[in-house]
Amino acid sequence: MISAIGKLIDACAHHRGLVIMAYVVLGWLALRALEKVPLDAVPDLSDPQVIVFTEWRGRSPTLVEDQVTYPLTASLLAAPGVEAVRGYSMFGMSFVHVLFAEDVDVYWARSRVQEYLAGIGPRLPEGATVTLGPDATGIGWVFEYALVDRTGQHDLAELRAIQDFELRYALESVQGVAQVASVGGYERQFQVQLDPQRLRAHGLTVGDVADAVRRTSGESSGRILELGGREAFVRGRGYLHDLAGLESAVLKASPELGAPLRLGDVAEVRFGPDIRRGLAELDGQGEVVGAIVVARYGVNARDVIERVKARLDEVAAGLPPGVEVVTTYDRSGLIDRAIDTLKHALVEEGIVVALVILIFLLHVRSALLPIVGLPLAVLLAFLPMAWLGIPATIMSLGGIAIAIGATVDAEIVMVEACHKRLEHAPKDMSEEQRRNLLAEAAREVTPAIFFSLLIIAVAFIPVFGLEGQAGRLFKPLAYTKTFVMLAAALLSVTLAPALRDLLVRGKIYSEERHPISRAIRAVYEPFVYVALRKPRTTLAIGVFAVLSAIPVFMRLGSEFMPALNEGDILYMPTTFPGLSIEEAKRQLARQDARLAEFPEVERVFGKVGRAETATDPAPLSMVETVVMLRPPEEWPTVTRERWWSGWAPSFLRGPLTRLWPEETPETWDELVAKLSAAVQMPGWTQAFTMPIRARVDMLTTGVRTPVGVKVFGRDLPAIEAAGARIEAVLRDVPGTRSILYERSLGGVYVDIVPRRDDLARHGLQVADLGEFVDLAIGGEPIAATIDGRRRYTVQLRVAEDLRGDLDRLRELPVAVPGPTSAVTRTVPLSEVADVALAEGPPMLRSEAGLLVGYVYVDIEPWRDLGGYVDDARTRVDAALASGELVLGPGMYLKWTGQYEQMQAMEARMRVLVPLALALVALLLWLQFRDLTEVLIVLLSIPFALVGSAWLLWLLDYRLSTAVWVGIIALVGLAAQTGVVMIVYIDQAFFRRLRAGKIRDLDDIIWAHMEGTVLRVRPKLMTVASMMLGLVPLLWATGSGADVMKRIAAPMVGGLVSSAFLTLELIPVVYTYWRYAQLRRSQRTGRPLAEICGLHR
Fold it and tell me: Model-level pTM?
């Protein structure tokens, strides 16, 4: 393979015009691909999901659970590829979330669910309507807006009609939009409020009125007539348009009555709102009508948002006077901020790397080789990104960022090798001799370069092996990093040889005359001399450094993922069940008003309950408030106490202020703490998160807080008791910011239980009583009317004052049929049924076919996730052992949230990291063919981890998936540094061995000093370009920076310690090994060249 690469280098150098033209074409194609790569803030982190939404109007949660949710979940558990099935049963609605394995295509999954629904559909109760949710992901809520009328010309009902029948249709026709969900306002209804006494007086039943109303509104067709040679369409026009038309509906007519009996004679007819299960509020100023734009699966989110905003601009001109559209959430801002953060870091990185190369080489034309190759390698990476559909996110661009430093390594080593050859070449050599000299220099270092690039790629295997949310987040980073590395490797053996003859010309500074090299050698030579002369002391320093990092590493703490600063906050407080819609409105307005008072806040859009979408199963006890923030530059500053405050003299305050300013912008955690204190209200448990983060967590694990405890069982009261006990046990665990067991009981039910004997005595069936409850008390919509594009329902119900009191409810008259089915009399409801208040669940949750209760735990920022859960589990285990917490038969606990994902990631790493290290060792053996050399190179890895541990501790970073990705990348870089060091030391050693100059320990030391000191420039160029290329990520701010900092930090710290310890310790260990070989040669009489494998 190495000889084939050498032949390729020679061919590209010989046909450089063709090669350059080929890369011009590739560059143009890459630019076209760059335009097609979709933009998004983060990769889609959600599992493939299908939501089955069932509406069974007016039914209680327990009835919905028993007859709809449980049959659906039990059936869908057997579907192929299903990972989890979660059910939510609410008033009149059922939500079943079917989560599939991550490699399942979402449209294939929807087809499988449809097949299973076709089989179970006939077994569902009559009136239950089953539909599939939109083909969207858990992070599909990309844009939200509110309709407001500050002039007061339009009420909430009119605003809701504008949203439902105008804006919704306009936006759902936009390409990439799966659904536009309305929330808040009032859905207008024609409401018929019955007077039971009047019905009884006229011998009518509720069913008679319902039949009459159904026949009151409608249109018909008489097909076509021919009139005067022209065809005319016949239509009967009878839709209701006003209350008068409904009031005039005829219920009964006979000669005895004279005038017909109309609906207005026995009922009050009015316009009113439908039952509401959600509302929206803006800035604490009052109710508004809101909408959520849900993007389709796999689309370019930014393009969808831009198209939605363009369509809103188009339709805004046609809105009634005074109505305006206010943006309440716009993910395109996050996308732009995240991409800008990485763009700036990439530009800074490229500039820093270019300066490093230029300073070390002091040869502009030679420096152009890596400077040209760097952006071209990055650009070529967009070709496979476009082909594979990998979007440009903070993670995929982050992969490019951490690859930039390593991509120039091959070119640096090759250019430096060429400089070395030209330094000692005769000035009068021919062009052919010069070309052969450069090709020979390139071939000399090709094996080390080739295997070092392979090592970096192989070291990243654990990242490709990540699964779940961690895999979806970091695999794009691994792909793009690999793409850049492969492009750099290809450029180093194709374009670089073609350009080398053109650019590596002119005056070449030898290392002896190079000012930077002289300074480096002056500093480094004494250190390496002392290290080689005092090997035991040097090794003791190295061992001490490694040992010092172990306790630091153990105290870092752990978390699944650092918070991705999205630039907006999602405030999600919850309260006890049973909250009425009017009380929820008052509480929400108070919360929003307090949040809107802060100068950092631009807009507050609060939602309580659910929006009209299958993607939102929120109960009335849960609030979701999007807090749009102003740019951090506009936030107030905070005065901080520095170590020099109060005593530093005036002449020092200036430079100290620049390094450690006393006035700094407010941090994210400080802002959240202020907001939390302001909205603390009795009965509410707080949770501050971010929009994407919350929805991904809720989809993946079902909980929205970092830690959750799921209590599984079959008996709801037992689950309730265990959940409440766990809440009490965990409340005092250090680091608990808030904790809530979301009560499954506590809802209020009015139970109407038929007495079968009494029903039989009056000639009634249970179904007759059920129909009375549905129509007279429940208020079932019985008809619909059309007004242009708008649709309104007609609701029939007993008057409100007769159903607001249990005693009056018991007196409602139930019609009793006579022998001829004619109505002869009525009886009070209390004569045929028991009416009483009872406690029951306002919402039921199930998973894997069992009922489940959730304990939500939010932890303080200073507490690490892994340490907190260890303490919490210890408390729970102690409570179980003492009998303080009791789990009944069939009950069990599951710790979930981000902790569950962290556990899965760590378990995966325990398998993949050793595998990657084994593959790295195999590649090293293929390079050196000697186990001892392989082990010496692997020594660079613990030395590198020393700097990682200390820098992570100084920056107060915990071990997270992002940090582990950085450590994995560091393993490859550290091994690469060791390979380059060993190659240069071997070259010097074997050169002296061939010359017969290896006779004693001093000869070995001088050979190794030559291999290290005289070759220190390429090693430091490599390390400096890698390290300084990553430093811009450490000082980056904005969206996505927190994740990239934690990837870069272990790499930067590791490169620092690796550079120092590797340059000092590897020569020492290598000297020990070579000296042992020399002594064996002297003892056995075997030639040293044979023992060292010189001719291998």
Answer: 0.81
